Amino acid sequence: MTDLEDILARAWSRVSGCRLVAVAGMDGLLIERHPAKQDDPAFAAAPAPEAIEHIVAEVTTLFGVAGGAMSRQLGTPVAELLALGETGGYLARRLTPDLFCLFVTDATADLSNARAEAEVLARELRGAFV
Amino acid sequence: MAASEATRLVDEARAVRGVLAAAVLGADGEVLAAAGEGAALLERMQRTATNALAAAEAFASLLDGLQGDALGEESDDPAGSGASEEQEAESHLTVLYQDVQPLLFEPLAGGDKLLVVAVESSADIGRARFHLRRLRNR
Q1: What is the value of ipTM here, to two decimals?
Q2: Which class is B1-36+100-138 in CATH?
Q3: Which chain B residues are within 8 Å of A1, Cβ to Cβ?
Q4: What is the pTM of this model?
């Protein structure tokens, strides 16, 4: 019915080392993800469905926290969050007050590329759905 | 809302991945259009919606009474901000029944119709709700 899945699939393919890309609501509910189908070979490398639901909820909380003193100090709302570990990381970007996109990457990902693609994805999604 | 419009909404809702059944109901629970996997599921959707509508009506009456009391107490507030803004705001209600197959309720424009869908699992709730709101706002 929509090309939301296609948009996410294109973003996923443009970020080397990307394990998963998703769109979620600021109420903590996952809307769509890629890879999403269990018969997709890339699905095995992505976080499990239950795990990504928890991750999305945590990112929502982080945006909420960053919307306080951190945003006030900047003078603009925090629009992007980056969380890194030795085996990979998370890049979340606000699309609208209600939506954000999330990239989950492995340790090989080029984060500057991921940030640039998150910007492209945000533009595409805003154009298509907002 | 014409029957064809209700049917179109049901068909488009059914096209969303994870949606098992969809129905457009009137304010009294009357089915205007419906399609889905299994008569039992559709029957459950209608029964739940009818019960939810009755409960919502009772809650709305209760809240109207409470808001009336609150307005009376704050009537000398020169800003008149909080309560009056709430009264002017358009209300939307999405109720989730997360048992076997979660049900989502999305009020349609005008407030006298309800789009109800059953989704396969809780993992489909966010996607379905996102697309239902887009359908509602068309």
Answers
A1: 0.79
A2: alpha beta
A3: 12, 15-16, 131
A4: 0.78
